[in-house]
Amino acid sequence: MSQGRLHKYAVVGLSLVVAACGGNDGPSGPPKVASITVTAPNPSLEVGSTLLFAATAKDAGGATLAGRTFTWESQSPAVATVDNNGVVMGVTSGSSVIKATADGVSGLANITVIPVPVAFVEITPRTPAVLPGASVQLAAVAQDAIGRTLAGRAITWSSANVALATVSNTGLVQGVASGSTFILAVSEGRRDSVALRVRSINAPSVSSTAPVTWTPGLATATIAGVNFSAVLADNQVFINGTPATVTSATSTELRVTVPSVTQLPCSPTGPVPLIVVVNGDSAQTTTNLAMATQRTLAVGASLELTSASDILCNEFSVTGGRYLITAFNASRFASDRVSFQLLAESRSSTTAALSLAGVPRPAAPTAGPLNTVANNVLSRSAAHTLLLNESIDRIDRSRNLVGSLRARRDLARQGSAFASSAARSVFSGTAATRTPAVAPPNVGDLVWKRMRRTFNSVSAFDSVRARVAYVGPKIIILEDTTNELYGQMNAEYLAIGAEFDQNMFGFLSNFGDPLVLDSLTDNNGRAIALFTKRVNEFELSGGGSLLGFVTSCDFFPQTDPVPGNACASSNEGEYFYAFVPNPNGVRGRFSLDTWKRFARGTMIHEMKHIVMFAERIARDANNAEETWLEEATAQQASELWARQKYGRVQRDDIRWAQGPTCDYATVSPSCPDPVEGIGHHFQFLYLHYDNSESKSFINNSDNIIYGSSWLFSRWLTDQFDNGNEPMFLQQLVQQQNDRGITNVEARTGKQWRDLLAQFSMAVLADNYPNATITNPLYRIPSWNTRDVFAGMNANLVFRNQDGSTTPAFPRAWPLNVRTASFGNLPSGARNVISLPGGGFVAWDVSGPQSQPQVFALRATNGGVVQSNVGMVIVRVQ
């Protein structure tokens, strides 16, 4: 037994001994109660409140006696009650005596019960009006601190100006003369007041309006009645809360110009409030207003509302069912943010119920066994690797090197030679004389290569000693001699080299020729891949691990008489720098199996960037492609390769089980070569969908473009390639100066806002369950996105340290969709705050529809929304 436990039991034993020896009565028994004292924390309590009374028993010597049981009693239970524990409750105003008894001895205490004090007074109605000589009844109630009505409290009434109105002790107000005053009600020092309008005996009154139905901008609307003012400025008219222009006035008729559709709030055709104010006196009625564009959508039909006039007010007939709606910001700059609201209203005033991600889900695929990292279970580090920070190559391109493409072209034209290259080109006008091709090295040769030390400088580099591991017709593979597995990966390098020569290079040809400038660089007829642990060890500002990169620096000479024309870290050729397996590494730790799964997809992605650099330089380009579109087509390159791995073709509506599952599976007959092909794309697309209203696929500085920009480019290709995918991709890449949105518009022949409208609906509507959609543009033909995401949700999990698992992708359909019923949308479902250019918001509106429904896009203050905003509406059920 421990020292602490011994101490504990010694104390318990001591307490028992003391209890046995206590008291002074000896063999005569326990002491008798001689007196009882009853006390209360307060001498009074409010009706409905409680107090805990205490009773103390003492012996004849005044010593307190513990352990006595008391019987409690109230001598006036109609005033206050008491329970067996001494809890007293006030019932009504008055006094009572509370008695506690033990062993036949009693003690008494007085308690006074007081009324609950008045905390508030409230008068109704809040905006009373009366004519001189007439009366209006006001009511006032007294309330306690939590808003409960206190009955029977005296109310004192008074008028601030008895020359205008008087008030009786019961709150009856009598109008005396026209004007405004205040009526006051007081109870127990608490007060309330309301403004009273004593209307003129000649207050206005409306008898009719003409024509029967008013329309926005109508210049001859007429209001007939009495007691209008012949002075034009004395009359005010409000139509559905919007001031109208009064153009003429007599005592019996006003003529007004109805406000424009941009000034009026969107409302269904029918009666709206009409208020006439004359010298402070008002009359209210209604008039019929028809301002909405009438729409009828059959199931499957759609509307693309991309002009400012189209989105102002649209009224849909009573058809019900389900409508999908997207609203988008067609600014060409992601930084250009807008705020607006989807105004939805019907006369039935049905309240919409907001629920994010409430769209019906596809059936989730059956989850497979969860055994290893390769078999659908992701360790935390592996999952971190999957969601990589790949910003390096685009950071590199965004710096001054991209702006130096023209300088590189000029070097070639001027005949400048690379410092260490045997390849030379001398341009004379349009003719060029080239030196013979350089023979490739032999497997096993040792060479020195340069490796950039940082991505913030093109000058700082380290020299890397590398061994030639593979030489093929299109690629040379080098391995760093300091790699952890140096000399142990000959078979792996042979396999990846053969893969590039036999498959990847052909897929790159869908975009262009990565070797189009080879005669101006190292002239060896091959790209070069350097696998080095230095890629693993790169410190990334955003965290994560780097799998590979390329740099436009390699298209520049190492030295030049003009410093701005040189890049000291250049290897003067078509180079790809890649990570390596380093199971014992400090940073970027990868097993050989993980390397095998990710290296090939990384290679084709990065080699596609070389295609862009080379093709643009060859065409005298001023700039590189914009980052978002360049990353999109690089992702398409790896997609084409993955599609071939899956045995699928373009527009195949590929499902989870038809290929993407093999990105994570172990070797099996259905997945003979599991490799990361398309999972990377959908992981970043999940991040975009999960934050859809704050993201834009044209944002060059957000990693979500690896998913969302790819999907946009894939959608463009499927919809506008005219059946020739390679030609469309080549035209998209092999451009001189068209970039980004301008490039996309030129290749498709469509305006940006129309493309964004159609793509936003394609994202929402793709494979929507049980939907009818007639417009083929509202599909993503090559990928069943709902099924792929459902498969990721059902099959991919994190393995936690305690052995448990949690879903890696918790939502089966991650796109944020605002769901609502027909009727009036609450502000949470209605308001859109700070939507970026290239971004969109999605709604799903469904249910029975008993009244016509309007949809409009308006500014958050009800005015006209910015011109970049538009929307698409599709009735799917």
Protein described:
The chain starts with a helix and ends with a strand. The radius of gyration is 41 Å and the shape is flat. The N terminus is likely disordered. By secondary structure, it is an alpha+beta fold. Helix 6 crosses helix 9. The protein contains 16 helices and 50 strands. An 8-stranded mixed beta sheet has the order 21-23-26-25-24-27-28-22, with no helix packed on it.
Furnish the topology, listing elements before pairings.
Elements: H1 3-21, E1 35-39, E2 44-46, E3 50-52, E4 54-58, E5 64-65, E6 71-74, E7 80-82, E8 87-90, E9 94-102, E10 105-114, E11 120-124, E12 129-130, E13 135-137, E14 139-143, E15 149-150, E16 156-159, E17 165-167, E18 172-175, E19 179-187, E20 190-198, E21 205-210, E22 213-214, E23 221-226, E24 235-239, E25 242-249, E26 253-257, E27 270-278, E28 281-289, E29 293-295, E30 302-305, E31 314-316, E32 321-329, E33 338-346, E34 355-356, E35 377-379, H2 380-386, H3 392-398, H4 400-403, H5 405-414, E36 425-428, E37 431-434, E38 446-452, E39 461-471, E40 475-480, H6 490-508, E41 527-531, H7 533-536, E42 548-549, E43 575-578, H8 592-618, H9 627-646, H10 679-690, H11 705-720, H12 725-733, H13 740-748, H14 752-765, H15 785-795, E44 797-799, E45 805-807, E46 817-821, H16 827-830, E47 831-835, E48 840-847, E49 853-858, E50 869-875
Parallel strand pairs: 2-10, 12-20, 22-28, 29-31, 35-44, 40-41, 41-43, 46-48
Antiparallel strand pairs: 1-4, 3-8, 4-5, 6-9, 7-8, 9-10, 11-14, 13-18, 14-15, 16-19, 17-18, 19-20, 21-23, 23-26, 24-25, 24-27, 25-26, 27-28, 30-50, 31-49, 32-48, 32-50, 33-47, 33-49, 34-46, 36-37, 38-39, 39-40, 42-43, 44-45
Helix pairs in contact: 5-8, 6-8, 6-9, 8-9, 9-11, 10-11
